[in-house]
Amino acid sequence: MDGTFNENDLSRVVEADRAHIWHHLIQHKPFETNDPRIIVEGKGMRVWDQKGKEHLDAVSGGVWTVNVGYGRESICKAVYDQLMKLCYFANTAGSIPGSIFAEMLIDKMPGMSRVYYTNSGSEANEKAFKLVRQIAHKRYGGKKTKILYRDRDYHGSTLATMSAGGQDERTAQYGPFAPDFVRVPHCMEYRKHELDGAPEENFGVWAADQIEEIILREGPDTVGALCLEPVTAGGGVIEAPEGYWQRVQEICKKYDVLLHIDEVVCGVGRTGTWFGYQQYGIKPDFVTMAKGVASGYAAIACMVTTEEVFDMFKDDAADPMSYFRDISTFGGCTAGPAAAVENMRIIQDENLLQNCTDMGDRMLGNLQALMEKHKVIGDVRGKGLFLGAELVADRATKEPMDEKRVQAVVADCMAQGVIIGATNRSIPSRNNTLCFSPALIATADDIDQITDAVDGALGRVFG
């Protein structure tokens, strides 16, 4: 092959993929006898594969990204126009779209002040980790370097972010990891029986109190930050119970611990507010984001901080080591913020936050109705258009459903032309949650088609 083949020659595209592409999160052995899937086109909520089959996408690009749907001409035009004017300059200097989007973003985040552009969600989180470590040296004599993270949460695929990885199958075989990352318990009420000492009532407060106990165990003078997802994503779509977030905020203030909220999945509308943390009235010190920032039309991620954090690095002293000595090469690409500006305008002008809330309520209701019908659904949970249905072998004991049977439901929906997700290679023996994150443009008919597909799949897989 010389690279000059016609894009319409899809059989050749498939062979090029089979011969040369290393896909994400997939075992490639089956491709020796089966064709890899090629997604050729997308429009609105739907995508088409190389065989021309249409699929309703209930996971926004497979990994919770395409928030405003496929085929948005205005975003594509904004990116094109910007690239023709200026494609890139290192973020040691500013750019027009970078400044405009930063102002738009901060307007949606009261209490936050500064935007640091970077390459990916993993890297955005790692920037925050570096800041915590540098603050420890600048202000605390090298102490307060420890970063707490939560069981079942996920923060990225770099070695540092895997060091804060609460999903043991994601981190297996990749150690040893960076020191001074300390795990705290999950806050999943449905599985509180698996936590020693968990009470029947006020579980949210109890789960937060476990964080305080760990801070006291490690030593408050050694703990610099706490990193949490507002809604745990790949660990099972877990919303914290009542009382949790208020108590977390109190604990962080009490022990001078910086609060880092990882909004890589929930950010920019997924839960029905601009950011997931805004559902709970908390005030973070760092907010990281990526996927929905530009809905996948260009690569962009951000680490956002308060002015108080920023001022720790704004130093007139002669010490050349005092500022944040960091760079992300593609944080200087202008396509990302150009796309993000138009993405945010679409969400505002089309009232997609309200649609997310309305359609999320509809989907939650549909899933709850399926729970009444199918005894294999043990729990339904989530926020906005970010929902999960946990499958169990026994409702009384909450024994998790076998992962192969969960994946059989996903495969059945795919055969029906509906793409859903499921926890996969994340939590040992707990990869049993069906995951849904349709685009914020979803209609009632779209929602009903998704849950009808799940209904049919459950009936066929479990009889």
UniProtKB/TrEMBL annotation:
Keyword Transferase: yes
Superkingdom of source: Bacteria
Pfam family, one: Aminotran_3
Keywords of the record: Aminotransferase, Pyridoxal phosphate, Pyruvate, Transferase
This protein's record includes keyword Cytoplasm: no
EC number(s) stated in the UniProt entry for this protein: 2.6.1.77
Signal sequence, renumbered to the chain: none
Entry-linked InterPro entries: Aminotrans_3, Aminotrans_3_PPA_site, PyrdxlP-dep_Trfase, PyrdxlP-dep_Trfase_major, PyrdxlP-dep_Trfase_small
Protein name according to UniProt: Taurine--pyruvate aminotransferase
Cofactors required: pyridoxal 5'-phosphate
Family the UniProt entry places it in: Belongs to the class-III pyridoxal-phosphate-dependent aminotransferase family.
Organism: Ruegeria denitrificans
Gene Ontology terms for molecular function: pyridoxal phosphate binding; taurine-pyruvate aminotransferase activity
PROSITE patterns: AA_TRANSFER_CLASS_3
